[in-house]
Amino acid sequence: MPYRSLATLETWLEEFTTDHVLGGLVRVVPQDGSEGADTGLIVFPLGGGTTTVYIEPTETSADARWRIHFEPREHEAVMTSAQVHSMAAELDMAAALCDFIETKSTEHLAALGRI
Length: 115
Known about the structure:
By secondary structure, this protein is α+β, with helices and mostly antiparallel strands. The chain has one domain (about 5-110). It has helices at about 5-15, 80-110, and strands at about 25-30, 40-45, 50-55, 65-70. Strands 1-2-3-4 form a four-stranded antiparallel beta sheet, covered by helices on one side. The protein starts with 5 loop residues before the first helix and ends with a helix.
């Protein structure tokens, strides 16, 4: 499978969820890649859908690093301490998923002799 393709990311997300519970809201969505490339990004809603983050690769295909983006909000978020604890756990899981995807990307690039 090509690196960063929608199918590759779906496979990696499925692999990650064998050991981690993410709920049904985390998904891979199509992304317009350069020159029509079949790429995707991982969308991760937080706080019951009040905030969304997405995980996408850096700009170069030779870089195994990924970044977590926080989508802008129209309104401030007001939460109880329990809700903040829940969101903190979700953020920790988003970071763990990003780490996992970076590891898989590094392995993939190494197998191709690119790093």
